[in-house]
Amino acid sequence: MSPRKLQYYGSKVLRNSSRAVDIPSELEFLHSLLSDMLEILKYEKGLGLAAPQAGENVRLFVLNSDELNLSGHSIFINPEVTTSGSLDKDEEGCLSIPGIFEYVRRPLNVSVSACDLAGERFTLNLDDYSARAVQHENDHLDGILFVDRLSPLRKRLVKKQLSEIKREYGPHSRIL
Ligand SMILES: [Zn+2]
What we know:
Elements: H1 27-43, E1 48-50, E2 60-63, E3 75-92, E4 102-115, E5 121-127, H2 128-140, H3 152-169
Antiparallel strand pairs: 1-2, 2-3, 3-4, 4-5
Zinc ion (ZN) binds at residues 94, 96, 136, 140.
């Protein structure tokens, strides 16, 4: 099987809700998916990548632990995220939405519980950009993109760029 490819805005898989993964029985699939996801993340020099961005509607994401403060964790399988704290505004981008960077308002703190590849559940309490990255990736598992969280005005302002991305990278483009 050829390696999975990064999915761009306009790809239907980015809009689906993802299903939970069964770790012992799906280990082979998980290994192949994670290897492709880590490859894409490294190649694209991203902060994080969720499985739908690699074309698979399963609940898992990877984060760049060199750039974020995650106590060494980088693989989050079947994550459960609880947010708290005041709202904070910072700039976000997304590998699936190239060229668009916008400020997004999100809670400052998260508690994330997830499984690692061994099936062990761990919990991390995060703040600042690590908390933001977890929320951004977790949104992908519910078919939500960061541009959905912009104000109506900002949404109108990025609309044209979004349709250009869809045309350039989308399923009916000359590239794919
Ligand atoms: Zn993203």
